[in-house]
Amino acid sequence: MLQDIDLVIEAGSFVALLGPSGCGKSTLLRFVSGLDSPASGSIALAPGPEEERVSAPPKLAFVFQDAQLLPWRTVVDNVALPLELQGVSRAEARRRAHGPLAEVELSDVHERFPDQLSGGMRMRVSIARALVTEPSVLLLDEPFAALDELTRQRLDERLRKLWQTRRMTVIFVTHALAEAAFLAERALVMSRRPGRIVLDHPLQLPEERTMDLRTNVEFVAQTALLYRALQQHGALDDAPRQASRS
């Protein structure tokens, strides 16, 4: 359940959405994607520059917590699938899948199957599959939650670089405070049900972010600010572990 959500997200920005379990983070993401519809209110998506030029609706892509790859299709065929569903020929879809795979540094595993990949590699394939249609809006619902900490941090760094290159609008749901602070330009903290925005905070961190930033005093201060917002609204069961890592 959501309550009094009044939110504008600038095109090309990276926004992290934080909050306790069950507060409506994933629901809000599904409303934005069109997978579900709110009982009241409305959501409007502005087209990107290229979409505006051809009078087309904005392209969206969704990355879920599970990579959701088809086990009988190779890596390149999994990435090509969205294009095939749009009517692109299989040969052309496979050709166009190579670019996103290179962006996530998986050019050497094109013909492997999902069960031959690590968890981190499968998630990178899922991200490549989302990027293959060149979306102007990328929605991610805790995509790295099941991964070990080091793999997660490496994927955070790679995703941040992908955003810097493509400048699509990104909304990233996470429980991890350090992950939110590392990735985003802006963090939104939600309360317990009924979920509402209790903190809308522009993250005051440098544009270029590497692993070393996580030990920076300012990074710790930004993470602590997010932690205090969660603490104030009763989310202590979700927040302490992530805050203590920072």
Annotated CATH topology of the largest domain = Rossmann fold
CATH homologous superfamily title of the largest domain: P-loop containing nucleotide triphosphate hydrolases
Helical element count? 9
End-to-end span in angstroms?
A: 30 Å
| Helix fraction by DSSP (H/I, runs of at least 4) | 40-55%
Describe the structure.
The chain is α/β, with parallel strands linked by helices and 246 residues long. It folds into two domains: 171 residues, P-loop containing nucleotide triphosphate hydrolases (Rossmann fold, 3-Layer(aba) Sandwich); 66 residues. 40% of the residues lie in helices and 12% in strands. The longest helix has 18 residues. It is globular.
Topology at a glance:
Elements: E1 14-18, H1 25-33, H2 49-53, E2 60-63, H3 75-85, H4 90-103, H5 119-131, E3 137-141, H6 149-166, E4 169-173, H7 177-183, E5 186-190, E6 197-202, H8 217-232, H9 240-245
Parallel strand pairs: 1-4, 1-5, 2-3, 3-4
Antiparallel strand pairs: 5-6
Can you give me a brief rundown of this structure?
By secondary structure, this protein is α/β, with parallel strands linked by helices. Helix content is 40%, strand content 12%.
Question: Which terms summarize this structure?
Answer:
single chain, 246 residues, alpha/beta, Rossmann fold, 2 domains, 6-stranded mixed beta sheet, 9 helices, globular, disordered C terminus
